[in-house]
Design a protein that fits this description.
- Helix 1 (43-63) packs antiparallel against helix 2 (71-95).
- The chain contains seven helices and ten strands.
- The chain starts with a strand and ends in an 11-residue tail after the last strand.
- Strand 2 (20-26) and strand 3 form a beta hairpin.
- The strands form two sheets. The chain has a five-stranded antiparallel beta sheet.
- It is an alpha+beta fold.
- The chain has a single domain (3-138, 167-245), classed as 4-Layer Sandwich (Phosphatase 2c, domain 1).
- It holds the Pfam family PP2C_2.
Length: 256
C-alpha cells in the first residue's frame, strides 16, 4: 500500500508574512510523519514558533533509530516529541524578550503502514474522508468551541464570533501542556487533510469534502484548497497537507 502526499502553504492575500509552517517527513518502511503549525505572537515570534515546532519534530523523526509501529507506541512517541518542542519554544520565549508570549498550534499525523496516529494542540485541524464520510478528527482548543460545548452558543454563531481566534491551548505558551492523540486504521482510498485555520475559516466543510473527492492528483487538490481560501478573502495564512492512501496497487508492487 502506498501513501500519496502533498503540501502547500501560502501567505494569503492580506498578510505580509507567513506564520504557518508544515512538513512531510519520510522514514523507514514507507512510514510518514506530517506536521502543520500555525504560529502566533507577532510575525517574528510566530514565524519562530511554527518553524521551531516543525523543524524539531522532523529532526527527531529523521534521527529515530527505531520507528514506532503499534498505535500505543506511536501515541507515546509523538506526545514525547511535542512535549520536548513545547519546552524548547517556551524556553526560547523566556530567553528572548521579543519572543515572549509566542506560541503555535500543531497537528501531526504519523502513518505506519495501515494505521495512523493524529495528535494536536490548538485549532489547526485534521479531517478524514472515508468513502462518503467527512469527519473532523480533532477538536479545536479554542474559546468558541468551549462555548459551543457548554451550549452557550451554536456552531453557526461560533463561525462569526468576535473571539473566534482565542485559543485555550497552544504549544510554547505554558511550561506544561496536555496533548490530544488518537489512532485508527486507514483503508485504501482514505484521505487525511491537515490544515491551519486560514483554510477552515474560509472554506466550508462541504467544499473541503467536494475538493478531496475530486479525482485529480493530491497536489492539485491542495492547490485548489488554497486557491479557494484566497478567493474567499485570504485574510490569514493558509496551509494544507494531504495524505492519501492509494486505492490501487502501484505498478511494480506485489499484490497481497
Amino acid at each position: 500500500m502506498r501513501l500519496l502526499t502533498a503540501l502547500k502553504t501560502d501567505t494569503g492575500k492580506i498578510r505580509q508574512h507567513n506564520e504557518d509552517d508544515a512538513g512531510i517527513f519520510k522514514g523507514k518502511d514507507e512510514f510518514i510523519l506530517a506536521v502543520v503549525a500555525d504560529g502566533m505572537g507577532g510575525h517574528l515570534a510566530g514565524d519562530v514558533a511554527s518553524k521551531m515546532a516543525v523543524k524539531a519534530i522532523g529532526e527527531k523523526w529523521n534521527q529515530a533509530e527505531t520507528i514506532p509501529s503499534a498505535p500505543s507506541e506511536c501515541e507515546t512517541w509523538i506526545k514525547e516529541q511535542i512535549h520536548a518542542v513545547n519546552s524548547q519554544i517556551y524556553g526560547h520565549a523566556q530567553a528572548h524578550e521579543e519572543c515572549q508570549g509566542m506560541g503555535t498550534t500543531i497537528v501531526c499525523a504519523l502513518f505506519t503502514g495501515k494505521s495512523v496516529t493524529v495528535a494536536h494542540i490548538g485549532d489547526s485541524r485534521c479531517y478524514l474522508l472515508q468513502e462518503d464520510d467527512f469527519i473532523q478528527l480533532t477538536e479545536d482548543h479554542s474559546l468558541v468551541n468551549e462555548l459551543v460545548k457548554t451550549g452557550e452558543i451554536s456552531k453557526e454563531d461560533a463561525e462569526h464570533h468576535p473571539r473566534k481566534n482565542v485559543l485555550t491551548k497552544a504549544l510554547g505558551t505554558d511550561r506544561s501542556i496536555s496533548i490530544d492523540a488518537r489512532s485508527f486504521e486507514l483503508e485504501p482510498g482514505d484521505k487525511l487533510l491537515l490544515c491551519s485555520d486560514g483554510l477552515t475559516n474560509k472554506v466550508e466543510d462541504r467544499e473541503l469534502k467536494e475538493i478531496l473527492q475530486d479525482t485529480s492528483a493530491p497536489q492539485e487538490k491542495v492547490n485548489l484548497l488554497v486557491d479557494k481560501a484566497n478567493e474567499n478573502g485570504g485574510e490569514d495564512n493558509i496551509t494544507a497537507v494531504l495524505l492519501e492512501l492509494a486505492l490501487h496497487v502501484e505498478e511494480g508492487e506485489e499484490k497481497c
